[in-house]
Every structure is written in structure tokens, then in C-alpha cells.
Write a structure and sequence with these properties.
This protein is mainly α. 71% of the residues lie in helices and 10% in strands.
Length: 129
């Protein structure tokens, strides 16, 4: 399966998931939905921290970038990474999650809020470990 086909499949899954997220927000409110959604970021942060502990200090961010790049770029995303001795940054050019959520009727601001909540939670966990 090519990357475009994977992108379409992942986008479809996130479209269905986006409908669920929208229903949860209607039932419980966006604040609670965001709080629950951010738990994914907490779990990701713990997993990334554990991965980083297994790597040599001078190369661990490069190994993380390599692992993340392989996963995301083979899963429908188009992502570039930049690594310095102190930082790991990435730029997302195509995101099937975002596109699927848009297809489900979520607004851009809602999607950005969900995404940011996840990444803030990930960063918190990384700093704690």
C-alpha cells in the first residue's frame, strides 16, 4: 500500500473518530473532552521518555527523530524533523488526523486545540521524567 493509500485509510479512521469526539463534546463539553483527549499525550510522553532512557545521551534525539519520522511518514503524514543537541522539532506538512477531523465536521480551532492539548501533555511528561 502506498503512502497516499495509507493517508486515505488513516484519514477515514480519524473522520470516524472525529465524529465520536464531536459527540463526546456535545454530551460533556469541550473542556472535559480536551482533558480526556490530552491523556493520549500523557501516555505518549511516558513512552517517549522510556525510549529516550534506552539511548545514548549524545544521540538520543537523533534516534527519536528517526523513529518518529519512520512511523509518521509511513502512516500517511508528511513530516520533517530538525534535531539540535538540545531540541527536537518537527514540521507537519500533511496530517490525516487533522484532515479526518475536518471531514467529521470539527472546526479548525477545535482540532488545533485538541492537537495542542496532546502535545502540551506529552511535553509535561517528558519534563517530569
Amino acid at each position: 500500500m502506498g503512502n497516499d493509500e495509507v493517508y486515505d485509510a488513516v484519514k477515514t479512521i480519524f473522520s470516524l473518530y472525529g465524529s465520536f469526539v464531536r459527540d463526546v463534546a456535545e454530551e460533556f463539553g469541550w473542556e472535559k473532552t480536551i482533558e480526556i483527549y490530552a491523556k493520549m499525550g500523557q501516555r505518549d510522553g511516558i513512552q517517549i521518555a522510556e525510549f529516550l532512557k534506552t539511548q545514548k545521551a549524545d544521540n538520543r534525539l537523533n534516534e527519536l527523530a528517526k523513529m518518529q519520522s519512520e512511523f509518521y511518514n509511513s502512516s500517511g503524514w508528511k513530516v520533517d524533523y530538525e534535531v539540535t543537541p538540545e531540541t527536537f522539532e518537527y514540521t507537519v506538512h500533511r496530517c490525516p488526523c487533522f484532515d479526518g477531523f475536518m471531514e467529521a465536521g470539527l472546526r479548525k480551532e477545535e482540532i488545533n486545540t485538541l492537537c495542542k492539548a496532546t502535545h502540551v501533555a506529552t511535553d509535561k511528561q517528558l519534563r517530569a521524567h
